[in-house]
Design brief:
CATH class: Alpha Beta
Order of helices and strands: EHEHHHEHEHHEH
Radius of gyration: 15 Å
Largest sheet: 5 strands, parallel
Shape: globular
Length: 171
């Protein structure tokens, strides 16, 4: 028998802490951890940046969508790539057995955490600034989020505590 909403799906910008928080949260909630950026890289034997540099950001988004649509896991914390929210189908698939938690982090904090965005494999247009990408994605994160956590000023452990408190209240 499968539990309703067994997965916790972390969405947010690159540098928001999805992977770091995800590992801690998985440990604290006795769940497995899945990092979809790593799934993309291992399934294609390439880095995200190599895919963007060689094939373009649109191809990375297509690959990401395929990986997300093929994901069939239960009782996991899933750290999505920052561009997962561009696929309505992938988000619907993920949310069919999970709750999406938006890790909301401001631009100055993101810039302090990610020292070189040019190596992160960002699925964005070449002419798009980081701030423009942030503003474009913010609407999508808000649209798909079941819960938003304002992470500014919180440690990764603090973010996990907030998520766990919310999940207990809502379960």
């Amino acid at each position: 028998m499968s539990k309703a909403c067994s997965n916790i799906i972390l969405i947010g910008m690159p540098g928001a802490g999805k992977s770091t928080v995800g590992v801690i949260l998985a440990k604290q909630t006795s769940r497995d951890f899945v990092d979809t950026d790593l799934l993309i890289q291992t399934s294609h034997n390439r880095t995200l940046q190599d895919i963007v540099d060689t094939d373009g950001y649109a191809v990375l988004r297509e690959i990401e969508e395929d990986v997300l649509l093929g994901l069939a896991v239960e009782n996991c914390v899933i750290a999505t790539g920052g561009s997962a929210v561009y696929s309505a189908g992938a988000m619907a698939h993920l949310k069919s057995d999970g709750r999406a938690i938006f890790l909301d982090v401001d631009i100055p904090t993101l810039e302090s955490r990610v020292h070189d965005f040019s190596t992160r494999g960002l699925a964005k247009r070449a002419d798009q600034s980081f701030a423009d990408m942030f503003n474009e994605r913010l609407a999508l994160y808000t649209q798909y989020a079941d819960v938003t956590i304002n992470c500014v000023g919180l440690t990764h452990e603090g973010v996990c505590s907030r998520i766990m408190d919310i999940m207990k209240v809502k379960n």
